[in-house]
Every structure is written in C-alpha cells, then in structure tokens.
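Bug #77: duplicate submission created two jobs. Keeping one. Sequence:
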Amino acid sequence: MTLASFAGTRAVRALAVGVVIFTASVAGIDSRLPESIAVLWPANAILLAVLVRHRAARRHLEVWSAAAVGYVAADLSQGTAATPAVVLAVANLAGVVVALLVFVRLDVADVRVATPSTVVRLASGCVAGCAVGAVIGATVAVSYFGGTWPEGWLSWFACDLVNYACLLPVLLTVRRWRWTSWTGLVGALRTVATSWTLLIALLVVAWLMRDSGSAVAFTMPALMACALGGRMFATALMVMTSTVAMLALSVGVGASAAPAPVSTTTQIALALLALGPLLVAAATAERRRLLDEIRQATTRDDLTGVLRRGEFAARAQELLAHGDSTGMPTAFLMMDLDHFKLLNDRRGHRAGDQALVEFSAILRDVLGSQRDDPRGAIIGRVGGEEFAALLPGVSVERARALAEEIRRRQEDRARADFGADGSTVSIGVSGCTGRHTLDELMMSADASVYSAKRQGRNDVVVFADTVLRAVGD
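Kept job's structure:
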C-alpha cells in the first residue's frame, strides 16, 4: 500500500466516523424534551466502541477531529449557538477520552469473550467517563435548562450512563455473522425464542400498567433467563431493547399526557439493572469455557491435541454401533512412527515431541479433508508413538489411498526436519461392514502394521482379509 492510498484510507475512515457521530448526535438532539437534555444519546457509546474495537483509530488525529466536527455540526444544524455547541462537543469528547483511558489502564480484554471482571471494568470506565463529561456538560445544562450546577451534573451523568449501559455492550459484543446452515440458524433462534417471548410479554404488561416507577424492573426475569444461557451479545441486545422500552415508558410515549422528562433516579436504576444480566451472562460464559477446558484436558492428548486412548475408544465404539444399523463401510488405520526411539536418542526428546506434533497435524489435515462421511474421522494417540484413526463411511480402497498420502507426507516432513534421523510411518489398514468390535479392527490393523515393519517400514499394508465379515454372516 502506498503512502497516498494509506492516507486516503485513513481519511475515508475518519469521514465515516464523522458522518456516524453527526447522525447519532442529531438523533439524540431530536430526543430532547422541554427543559431536559436528551433522553437517548448514542453518539458517545458509538465513538467509544469504535475506539475500543479499532485500536489504530485511537492514534489518528483525523478520527478525533472528524468526531469533534460531527458533534459540533449536529448542534449547529439544530439551532444551537456556536459557543455552547463547542462546549457540548468538548464535554462529550472528554467523557469518551476518560472512559477509554480507564479501559486501557484496566487492560480490558476482548468483550466478546467477557468475564465478570471485564464487565466490572467496563462499568468503571463508563462511570468515570460520565462523571468527567458531566463536569463540563453541566455548565451548558444549567444555562439551557436552569437549576443548580449539581443538578445539571447529575442529569448529564445519569443520561450518559444509561446510554452507555444500553448501547455499549451491544456494540462491543456484536460479531460478524457466519452463515452455516438453516439448521444452525433455526437452532440459534430456538435458544433465545423463549427469552424474547417473555420479554415482549412483560413489556406489554408494563405498558398497560403505565406505571414507570414500578415497571422499571418488569423485564428482569426475561433478561436473566437469557443471561443464564451465557450469550453476551444476545443478553446485551435484550438489555438494550428493555432499556429503550423503559425509557419510552418513563417519558410517556403512547400516553394521553404530554411527554415528561425522565428522572435521574429512573435513568440510574435502568443502568444498574442492565449490569446484572450482563454479569450473569459473563459468569455463565466463563463457567462454560472452564468446563470446556477441563473436558479438553481430560479427553485430548496434551502434546498432540488428538484424542486420548480412552476417549478415542469410547467415540469409536459409538460410531461402530451406529454402523451396525446402517451397514455402512468403516475403515481403521493403525500407525506407528518408525525408529522413533532412535530419533529421541540422537536428537533429544524435544525433537521427538516435534515429530509427534507434526505427525498429528498431518493426520488432521489429510483425514479432516475427507468428506465421505459428514462426521469425519476420529483420531487418537493410543501409545507413545502410535496413532489410530477410525474412518466412518470410508471404504478400504479409499482408506488405503488416505494412508498412502499420510505416509508420503510424513516421509517428506521427517526428511526435511531431521534428515536420515527422521521417523517415517508404518500404517496398517483394516475395514468392515456391519457389526464389529473395536478390538477386532485394532487387532487386524495392528497385524498389518507389523507386516509393514517386517517389510522394511515406511509402508502401507492392508489386512489380508481386506474387509472383515460381520458377525453371524
């Protein structure tokens, strides 16, 4: 990329930020009520999310300048005088800067895999940003809407805080959608359908009651139900929906009377209520990650990442049982690295570990690419330098071709890494249709491995009977 194109890209990004901030600010100004600051103010949360998710943007003066212009231009376009427009922009930018500095100081990690600690740190940064921004913004608030400076500070603080709590979690946890299948889409929708149905029902009840004071917490059961699923973005989206709806109810949207300003108590209560479901969702997600790590540690080999012998046997038996009812072919590979002890003796155990890791990578690459059965291969480490693979839906002929590809790649890799000391691989192939035990397949493939060893190693041998006959045939 040339310097000119790089500068051009930065200018385009800065322009995009300015346009977004201008649009969001205009929307926020339109939500102002008589004698009140804005009910919704999304601009600060949007700018902060951009700076958190795109670290390079923090260092570009163009981005900050564009954001400032967006703030000022929005106020000027809505009839605000130049001086208060500039002061308001400074207040908003000051709040964003302080919140960002706190995030950096507290080393906030990727919020898309948030922990409860991350949520607390985010809340701390937002509170600090709102407090500092309100120091400057209160001066304009008092000039425009009257009252004392502490009242203006509290009004600005509460408005900014509820908007951060409402919008920032959604903006920080949203992911790029990855289309997989209709089944995956239906499954994802099904997992949140109950929570959303409950949320909508509770919102309807709250609206019918028209009592904003008691209705603020009405949606909490739905939010907690979603949070217990451990999905941060889904929870954040529901929190945003609930908070916006409660703000609208508090203002009096749909009521016969004229809209009234939202009290600072209601705004702060909504912000605090938003924190609970997010903490629960983060805690649930972290618990799931820990359980996955424990499951990984107990089922996967520490060095190679393939299945341990016990887990391999359990999964293989399950697939073989499935083959009993379908009659589909199943192939089995037993693989033993040649002269592995010699490699360890001459090059050290670190070289041996490297050889095992690289061989397991070859297995995943070759066997993971075969698509004869959608469930793919099961690969396990069944001994020190011994590996096995069960290939459901794969014929013996296809398994032999795959084994030959594994043998060839291992030979090339071993010679490239260790020369004459490298470990080639001897592979035994067996197959079956119908009802067979794992022991039968392993024994026949193991016998073929020994045949390959006797024939000089670095070879693929298919079991003499080619395909085992089903029991009872």
